[in-house]
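Q: what sequence does this backbone want?
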């Protein structure tokens, strides 16, 4: 009997979520690990380059599944969500500076609220940079590809935990080699932070009809928000205070995630993705099923989208 050989594309399409995760790790770690071994002082430039791994992996998987890259990008680029959601994304970035400020002041550092107005322009500039090359560029992979497909198979809360764990482990070489600002941070504390943050991002994604743009904004704002810690810029955080600050952030992020779950439930304002994408069929092949266009209705808020196509891409 003649054996049937599968093409690389068909192999990727057979297990799209697993293939995406493996490809995202390979693309990013192929940059970070050699740099860590041979050029440990490369710093932020290495982080920025490797951080494109999830987005590139997602693009490869969309094409492997027969989808249109143009349609996938269009589906993620949901801008018309109302000003309140942009303000919410920026407001949520304050979780980190508030938590770190509380710990720093408790440790004896002076408050410096008077410096904050002068730091706002630098913070906004850092958000723009982070949006493009220092964190935000990951989101087409995590929230633009992985999350919506997981939400066809499990609750949004469970999907958030899975994404959060994968996302945290993906960062591991940054901690091992101390790239950028990871040298004094703990991977074990970063894990629950990113799981909690993934819950927050899922809530924002689902509340804004799948806007990856808003997820990118929140991610970028979070990465840039240490500029808003209300202590003097000349203040030095020793290793012990850095760990305490990270522990405080862990608690604050998990509390925020718990509040969202308590208020909105495990669906986190989710749309019925399985019904929208496949008419109730939650098989993995749903990711390449023909999308259903038309006005979107959020079952929790009653909000309606503007002819937004299915977030889970497919053939056009």
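A:
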């Amino acid at each position: 009997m003649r054996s049937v050989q599968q093409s690389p594309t068909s192999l990727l399409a057979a297990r799209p979520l697993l293939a995406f995760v493996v490809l995202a790790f390979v693309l990013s770690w192929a940059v970070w690990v050699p740099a860590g071994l041979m050029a440990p002082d490369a710093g932020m430039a290495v982080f920025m380059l490797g951080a494109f791994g999830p987005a590139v992996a997602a693009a490869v998987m969309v094409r492997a599944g027969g989808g249109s890259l143009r349609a996938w990008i269009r589906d993620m680029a949901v801008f018309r969500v109302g000003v309140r959601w942009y303000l919410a994304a920026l407001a949520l970035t304050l979780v980190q500076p508030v938590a770190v400020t509380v710990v720093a002041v408790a440790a004896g550092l002076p408050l410096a609220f008077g410096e904050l107005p002068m730091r706002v322009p630098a913070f906004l500039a850092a958000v723009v940079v982070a949006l493009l090359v220092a964190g935000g560029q990951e989101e087409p992979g995590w929230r633009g590809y992985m999350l919506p497909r997981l939400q066809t198979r499990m609750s949004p809360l469970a999907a958030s935990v899975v994404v959060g764990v994968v996302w945290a482990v993906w960062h591991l070489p940054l901690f091992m080699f101390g790239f950028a600002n990871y040298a004094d941070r703990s991977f074990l504390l970063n894990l629950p932070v990113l799981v909690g943050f993934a819950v927050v991002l899922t809530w924002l994604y689902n509340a804004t009809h799948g806007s990856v743009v808003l997820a990118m904004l929140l991610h970028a704002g979070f990465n840039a928000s240490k500029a808003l810690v209300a202590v003097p810029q000349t203040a030095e955080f020793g290793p012990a205070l850095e760990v305490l600050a990270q522990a405080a952030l862990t608690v604050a992020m998990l509390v925020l995630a718990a509040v969202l779950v308590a208020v909105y439930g495990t669906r986190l304002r989710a749309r019925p993705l399985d019904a929208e994408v496949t008419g109730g069929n939650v098989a993995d092949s749903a990711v390449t099923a023909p999308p259903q266009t038309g006005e979107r209705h959020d079952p929790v808020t009653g909000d309606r989208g503007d002819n937004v196509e299915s977030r889970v891409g497919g053939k056009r």
